[in-house]
Write a structure and sequence with these properties.
By secondary structure, the protein is an all-alpha fold. It folds into two domains: 73 residues, no CATH class; 90 residues, Orthogonal Bundle (Helix Hairpins), CATH 1.10.287. 69% of the residues lie in helices and 0% in strands. α2 packs antiparallel against α3 and α7 packs antiparallel against α8. It is found in: Membrane. Its main location: membrane. It is a single-pass membrane protein. One of its GO terms (biological process) is protein import into mitochondrial matrix.
Length: 168
Protein backbone atom coordinates (compact mmCIF):
# COMPACT_ATOMS: atom_id res chain seq x y z
CA UNK A 1 0.00 0.00 0.00
CA UNK A 2 2.81 2.40 0.84
CA UNK A 3 4.44 1.73 -2.52
CA UNK A 4 1.23 2.67 -4.34
CA UNK A 5 0.90 5.91 -2.39
CA UNK A 6 4.56 6.74 -3.03
CA UNK A 7 4.23 6.13 -6.78
CA UNK A 8 1.02 8.20 -6.94
CA UNK A 9 2.68 11.05 -5.04
CA UNK A 10 5.74 10.95 -7.30
CA UNK A 11 3.55 11.00 -10.40
CA UNK A 12 1.56 13.96 -9.05
CA UNK A 13 4.73 15.90 -8.29
CA UNK A 14 6.08 15.13 -11.79
CA UNK A 15 2.87 16.39 -13.49
CA UNK A 16 2.74 19.52 -11.35
CA UNK A 17 6.39 20.42 -12.01
CA UNK A 18 5.96 19.83 -15.75
CA UNK A 19 2.95 22.17 -15.88
CA UNK A 20 4.73 24.67 -13.62
CA UNK A 21 7.52 25.10 -16.16
CA UNK A 22 5.02 26.00 -18.89
CA UNK A 23 3.43 28.84 -16.88
CA UNK A 24 4.21 32.54 -17.34
CA UNK A 25 5.51 34.57 -14.40
CA UNK A 26 2.09 36.09 -13.68
CA UNK A 27 0.36 32.71 -13.73
CA UNK A 28 3.07 31.27 -11.48
CA UNK A 29 2.34 33.97 -8.92
CA UNK A 30 -1.41 33.23 -9.00
CA UNK A 31 -0.76 29.48 -8.79
CA UNK A 32 1.59 29.98 -5.84
CA UNK A 33 -1.12 31.88 -3.94
CA UNK A 34 -3.64 29.15 -4.70
CA UNK A 35 -1.27 26.44 -3.49
CA UNK A 36 -0.50 28.39 -0.31
CA UNK A 37 -4.21 28.89 0.41
CA UNK A 38 -5.10 25.24 -0.27
CA UNK A 39 -2.24 23.93 1.88
CA UNK A 40 -3.06 26.44 4.63
CA UNK A 41 -6.74 25.49 4.52
CA UNK A 42 -5.91 21.79 4.68
CA UNK A 43 -3.58 22.46 7.62
CA UNK A 44 -6.32 24.40 9.45
CA UNK A 45 -8.83 21.60 8.89
CA UNK A 46 -6.31 19.03 10.12
CA UNK A 47 -5.56 21.07 13.25
CA UNK A 48 -9.26 21.55 14.01
CA UNK A 49 -9.97 17.85 13.56
CA UNK A 50 -7.09 16.87 15.86
CA UNK A 51 -8.18 19.41 18.47
CA UNK A 52 -5.10 21.61 18.35
CA UNK A 53 -6.98 24.76 17.28
CA UNK A 54 -10.46 25.93 18.23
CA UNK A 55 -12.95 26.14 15.37
CA UNK A 56 -13.45 29.90 15.78
CA UNK A 57 -9.71 30.54 15.64
CA UNK A 58 -9.51 28.52 12.43
CA UNK A 59 -12.46 30.45 10.97
CA UNK A 60 -10.75 33.77 11.67
CA UNK A 61 -7.53 32.47 10.14
CA UNK A 62 -9.46 31.31 7.06
CA UNK A 63 -11.05 34.73 6.60
CA UNK A 64 -7.75 36.64 6.71
CA UNK A 65 -6.72 35.78 3.10
CA UNK A 66 -10.12 36.96 1.91
CA UNK A 67 -9.35 40.44 3.20
CA UNK A 68 -7.21 40.91 0.08
CA UNK A 69 -10.42 40.79 -1.94
CA UNK A 70 -12.26 43.27 0.29
CA UNK A 71 -11.57 46.39 -1.83
CA UNK A 72 -12.89 44.59 -4.90
CA UNK A 73 -15.99 43.44 -3.01
CA UNK A 74 -16.73 46.93 -1.65
CA UNK A 75 -17.57 48.18 -5.12
CA UNK A 76 -20.70 46.00 -4.93
CA UNK A 77 -21.86 47.61 -1.66
CA UNK A 78 -24.23 50.15 -3.31
CA UNK A 79 -25.93 47.40 -5.31
CA UNK A 80 -26.33 45.24 -2.22
CA UNK A 81 -27.73 48.19 -0.28
CA UNK A 82 -30.11 49.04 -3.12
CA UNK A 83 -31.20 45.39 -3.34
CA UNK A 84 -31.80 45.17 0.40
CA UNK A 85 -33.67 48.49 0.36
CA UNK A 86 -35.96 47.35 -2.46
CA UNK A 87 -36.59 44.10 -0.61
CA UNK A 88 -37.66 46.03 2.48
CA UNK A 89 -39.96 48.27 0.45
CA UNK A 90 -41.63 45.23 -1.10
CA UNK A 91 -42.23 43.82 2.36
CA UNK A 92 -43.62 47.15 3.56
CA UNK A 93 -41.08 47.54 6.35
CA UNK A 94 -39.40 50.65 5.03
CA UNK A 95 -42.43 52.56 3.84
CA UNK A 96 -44.95 54.25 6.05
CA UNK A 97 -48.47 52.90 6.01
CA UNK A 98 -51.35 55.32 6.45
CA UNK A 99 -53.17 52.81 8.63
CA UNK A 100 -50.14 52.16 10.86
CA UNK A 101 -49.62 53.94 14.15
CA UNK A 102 -47.03 56.58 14.99
CA UNK A 103 -43.50 55.32 14.69
CA UNK A 104 -44.31 52.87 11.88
CA UNK A 105 -42.83 55.24 9.35
CA UNK A 106 -39.10 54.50 9.25
CA UNK A 107 -37.89 56.45 6.23
CA UNK A 108 -38.73 59.97 7.45
CA UNK A 109 -41.81 60.63 5.32
CA UNK A 110 -44.32 61.34 8.02
CA UNK A 111 -47.93 62.00 7.00
CA UNK A 112 -49.84 65.03 8.25
CA UNK A 113 -52.24 62.81 10.17
CA UNK A 114 -49.36 61.03 11.90
CA UNK A 115 -47.73 64.37 12.76
CA UNK A 116 -51.01 65.56 14.31
CA UNK A 117 -51.24 62.34 16.35
CA UNK A 118 -47.69 62.73 17.63
CA UNK A 119 -48.13 66.35 18.71
CA UNK A 120 -51.68 65.80 19.95
CA UNK A 121 -53.24 68.55 17.83
CA UNK A 122 -56.14 68.54 15.39
CA UNK A 123 -55.64 68.82 11.65
CA UNK A 124 -55.98 72.42 10.53
CA UNK A 125 -55.11 73.92 13.93
CA UNK A 126 -53.31 77.23 14.28
CA UNK A 127 -49.56 77.56 13.95
CA UNK A 128 -49.29 78.71 17.56
CA UNK A 129 -51.00 75.50 18.73
CA UNK A 130 -48.43 73.41 16.86
CA UNK A 131 -45.53 75.36 18.34
CA UNK A 132 -46.98 75.20 21.88
CA UNK A 133 -47.70 71.44 21.63
CA UNK A 134 -44.17 70.86 20.34
CA UNK A 135 -42.63 72.94 23.12
CA UNK A 136 -44.73 71.24 25.83
CA UNK A 137 -43.82 67.72 24.64
CA UNK A 138 -40.19 68.60 24.04
CA UNK A 139 -39.86 69.76 27.66
CA UNK A 140 -40.97 66.29 28.75
CA UNK A 141 -39.18 64.18 26.14
CA UNK A 142 -35.92 66.04 25.48
CA UNK A 143 -32.84 63.81 25.86
CA UNK A 144 -31.37 66.18 28.44
CA UNK A 145 -34.44 65.67 30.61
CA UNK A 146 -34.64 61.88 30.54
CA UNK A 147 -36.19 61.42 27.11
CA UNK A 148 -34.38 59.95 24.14
CA UNK A 149 -33.09 61.10 20.76
CA UNK A 150 -35.65 59.10 18.78
CA UNK A 151 -38.67 60.72 20.45
CA UNK A 152 -37.18 64.20 20.17
CA UNK A 153 -36.46 63.62 16.47
CA UNK A 154 -40.04 62.45 15.90
CA UNK A 155 -41.40 65.55 17.63
CA UNK A 156 -39.19 67.81 15.50
CA UNK A 157 -40.19 65.98 12.34
CA UNK A 158 -43.89 66.27 13.21
CA UNK A 159 -43.50 70.01 13.78
CA UNK A 160 -41.67 70.42 10.45
CA UNK A 161 -44.33 68.44 8.59
CA UNK A 162 -47.20 70.48 10.02
CA UNK A 163 -45.51 73.87 9.68
CA UNK A 164 -44.16 72.98 6.24
CA UNK A 165 -47.67 72.22 4.99
CA UNK A 166 -48.75 75.71 6.02
CA UNK A 167 -45.88 77.50 4.29
CA UNK A 168 -45.96 75.41 1.11
Amino acid sequence: MQWILGIALAAAVFVILKQWGALSAEKKKAATWKVILVVGGALLVFMVLTGRIHVLTAAVAAVIPLLRKLPALLKFAPEINRFMGSKQREDGHAQGNDHAGPGADLVGQMSEREACDILGVKAGCAEEDIVMAHRRLMQKLHPDRGGNDYLAAKLNEAKQVLLGKRHA
